[in-house]
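task queued by scheduler; priority normal; single chain, no ligands, no partner chains; default sampling; output format set to structure tokens
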Amino acid sequence: MKYDLHLHTNFSACANKNNSFEKLLTLAQKEGLENISITDHNTCIFHVINMFMDTSLFFKGKIISGMECDVVDSGVTFELLAYNFDIMPIFKWSFDTYGTLEIRQNRIKNKLIKIIRKHGLKFDDSIVFNGKTDYAHKYVYENLLKFDENKWLFKTYNIQSFNDFYRLTTTANDFLLYINMSEFWPSVDKVIDAIHKANGIVVLAHPFNYKTDANIFLDIVLKKKIDGIEVYHQSANKKQIKFLLDFAKKNNLIITGGSDYHGTEKHNTIGIKNIDKNQKEISL
């Protein structure tokens, strides 16, 4: 079976702006996927649309309700994947909790620029930011990168990519531009409670994709009674996948996998093959 339980459309600010759900579903059909979940950041709006639209015109397989939730624990930001939830209660909850994409991204952008000005970094205020389509952290990252005067920042913190910049900004409290995202994101407990009340399950997303020791997040999984782990993800090598598999089986956790497709250069392929037929999975 070929599936993918971690896909993004342009309802996610960090995805390709041309990556509509119609294009993504058409691609999933072309690639022969049987089961998918669209897991846009902090919204399940696609799944509301899917309730009223015949998306089988684009994709013939099964679509599982999904969403990727930004959360904060002890000042560290990471992501939880939610699946199989009742759609309308979570649609309302996510709107009440995260707000609109435009409001969310503008607030984060303003916070980052305030810190940038405080530290005297070079920044071009004339570049237009559109909160409906632009991703605040990426807008700031690309702006800072334009100026030679800011190169010391990238060198000092060994920032090689946007992912490095984003993770440092949201997880490393010794980073110059660190933000405690509890100002913007809910706690782990609040997300778990909301998803479970809506009959869904909660899965830790890509443990090896953070700038923090993966064991910290695995401890949170057990402590907070998170239902599963995203084992199969491009951020984990074969050794790390085996480690996660063993951990999940030992603790009777659900195992999932996904490409984290965004339609961007880094995340531009879809599909995961089920290579462990004995694993405990979401009911597909």
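post-processing summary
- The radius of gyration is 19 Å.
- The chain has ten helices and nine strands.
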